[in-house]
Amino acid sequence: MALTPGVSTDLAGLSVLVVEDEYFVANESARALREHGARILGPVPDVQRARELLAGESPDVVVLTRPSFLRHCAERRACRSPSRVTNL
């Protein structure tokens, strides 16, 4: 996971849902985020499992590879406002 120079990498206190179907990408993303203090939800490999997880969680940040998940998050207001969503 590339970090942007000059941007704070302190993610302490943020919950991050990682939706990624590639095992190694998911694990590496989660590891990098965890190293910077994030509490990781998942990673989950697909939208269905992400929806199941969202039934009991409301992440601060969502990292995803499927644009359809963004629509679901917005429709259900599953992400607290303001939410930060990254579409890879």
Rg from Cα: 12 Å
Strand order of the largest sheet: 2-1-3-4
Question: What is the helix tally?
Answer: 3
CATH topology: Rossmann fold
Quaternary structure classification: single chain
Mean pLDDT: 77
The gross shape turns out to be: globular
CATH hierarchy: architecture? 3-Layer(aba) Sandwich
Structural class: alpha/beta
Q: Helical proportion?
A: 25-40%
Which band does the percent of strand residues land in? Answer: 15-25%
| Pattern of helices and strands | EHEHEHE
Largest sheet: 4 strands, parallel
Q: How many beta strands in the DSSP annotation?
A: 4
Characterise this structure.
- With 88 residues, this protein is of the alpha/beta class.
- It has a single domain (15-87), classed as 3-Layer(aba) Sandwich (Rossmann fold), CATH 3.40.50.
- Helices cover 35% and strands 22% of the residues.
- It has helices at 23-35, 47-54, 67-76; strands at residues 15-19, 39-44, 61-64, 84-87.
- It has a four-stranded parallel β-sheet, sandwiched between helices.
- β1 (15-19), α1 and β2 form a beta-alpha-beta unit.
- The N and C termini lie close together (11 Å).
- 27% of the residues are buried.
What are the defining features of this structure?
88 residues, alpha/beta, Rossmann fold, 4 strands, 35% helix
Task: Give a quick precis of the structure.
With 88 residues, the chain is an alpha/beta fold. 35% of the residues lie in helices and 22% in strands.
